[in-house]
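Still learning. Any example?
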Amino acid sequence: MNGFLSLKNNIQYFMKANFSLINVAVLLLLAAISGCKTLEPKSTKKYNVLFIAVDDLNNDISIYGNKLVKTPNLDRLAAMGVKFDKAYCQFPLCNPSRASVLTGLSPDRTKIFNLETHFRKNIPNVVTLPQLFKNNGYTTNRVGKIYHMGYAPEKAGTNWLDDSVSWHKVINPIGREVQDDDLLTNLSTERDFNYLAADGTDEEQRDGIIATEGIKMLEQSKDKPFFLALGFYRPHIPYIAPKKYFDMYPLENIQLPKEPANDLADIPKDALWTNPPHWGVKELDLRKLKQAYYASVTFMDAQLGRVLDALERLKLEENTIIVFWSDHGYNLGEHGQWMKQTLFEKSAKAPLIIAVPGYKKGQNSERTVELLDIYPTLADLCNYQPSQKLEGKSLKPLLENPKAVWNRPAYTQVSGGKNRDGRSVRTERYRYTEWSKGKAGKELYDHDKDPGEITNLADKKGYETIQQYLAKLLHKQHSN
């Protein structure tokens, strides 16, 4: 109101002084530019991005319903943004999944199906997600595993399959667990079933170093836009964490999944990666292995907490997008399966949390999404146009309204061995899978009634219509 009266008085003064209308208009415009706050432009400050990847983390954590597993900092992060309950990887293996996320392209387009091939061998000119931000003036730094890296001691500290054009600076930490490698308890040399309740402090382990160096980078970059990628190694095998985290999980509290004796009777042979079931390891040793996995998860969560503390201390959470994701899920004995490389829910589904300042907080979305959606989401939120056609879709509508209409299915594929080829489609209710285009078997599960995927409904009476519909979805994606 005061601004309006001042404007009126100025007009009257200028008119009495015999100023022309043109002069009055010019003077009023100058006055408005210099003194009218309502015409000040909005802040054009860019979002920062804190991009946190975790290796082999499944949904056996408290925010997804497992109250045994202690992840207070993931609970804290979920309260800052939107947790996606049905997020799926494109390939349940490190290198193919990470190449897909970071290029925004499916494995069929990257042609990455193993742990040895660099994606630029097949798509040399692709612009990666961090490279997109680098090209738009961001400082892009990496600490730890973002692209694929090996775990053997001789590979520690190397770039392995990293992408140099994506980053300004990289750090490949070497923790004391590399030196302790010969102390590992080995349950199966063939399958690397190793774990260690380690001596020393959190900060001496590789993930502890990642948190420490990540905090330093936050402090150094806090006055300019940054894309900081932190890649935690745990809970990937070998399951290593300081002893105190093992103590949080008494062995008597660790149980294997309870499944019917005939659970595997209606499952195609190619669906099983762990063969024989549990690889023949004794139950007590499997419980020790699961204990070690949970200890590694809680150790990783503690390092996440250190980073979130620094973000808050530096007041960066007010303008920083946080993306937390795992490259795929992980089997812990379901159907006798361990690790990944299956198309069961436990292997294909991965944790995903996205926190954006000014968007929804503390909510979950039950919509079916893909890790492929991460690249277009960040590009959309930050108003950048990717140079290649991305295959995912921006999740911005679900960050604004987690219950918004969303009719996109999720696709996951796997291959391995001489003839093993599986493709799966997931809707909000069903999972449908074909092995070798159906020639080696099919699977259909109704997750509303059977979340453990115990009863295979493929080719069963009463499910013909839904199976035909899902098969069309699967074949359409494959044909693309």
Remarks:
- The first strand starts at residue 48 and ends at 54.
